[in-house]
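Hi L., both proteins are below.
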Amino acid sequence: MGMAMKQPSGPSSGDYYESRPFTELYDEYYDRVNRYLRCRVQSTWDADDLTTVVFLKALEKFEQYSRTSPFASWIFRIAHNTYVDFMRKNRELPVDQEDFLGAEPDDTWQPERQALTNEEVRLLRDRLDLLSQDQRDVLMLRYFADLKISQVAEVLGKTESSIKMISYRGLQKLQKMYERGDSE
């Protein structure tokens, strides 16, 4: 079974090389891409359709993927661009709080706990909506898509230092909102 590895040849002995086939990468990244898109759009149907579009685009262009950078950066750039195109076409508002949770009901789930979780998610959504578009993009890729700073930078076409600053400022703004207890 192939894996991502350091390629020993070349001018820099630490070059990254992704050797896994598309099917393995699809299996590994499908859920992460789908979770990212579900937190960005209202309809889970649309998120599932967008996820399919992302992987169809990736499959069509897989021969063009250089394999010298992490697959996550490449696939999430496709996912982000697909999301942006979708938003331009549909002018849709981001996700509902029920879809944001994305969890199946559990028989052991307590109604009080679910109500509290729903309220916490609603507050987080309200507060995220108050951030700049850049801050929302960075935080959602970082925390909902589980990307590293370098991968977020590659997806958004920004430097790592700017991603760190945008993330820091977004988190600081969220923290201040929570400390004040406001979402306005």
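That was the first. Here is the second:
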Amino acid sequence: MSCRITHCYPDGPAPYFSFQAKGRHGALAEQWLEIKSRALDAVITHGGTVTHHHAVGRDHMPWYRRQRPDLLLQRYRQRRIVWTRKEF
């Protein structure tokens, strides 16, 4: 396991953790998802966030949906409707 600090913000650093392990041949995707699921569940349980400073990837979306406030989703949807009606 390794940890690096890539960004420092007024409320604290942004640590990035990486780990390597030997996988089971033929079950790497399932093994990866199990590890990722447990890790992100722990992050949320202990008050962390799965968001990133520039985006939330598709593989993080199930956990992001658990954290995202309903009001924020409503605002995004309202803006998207307005933006799609405009001609750019």
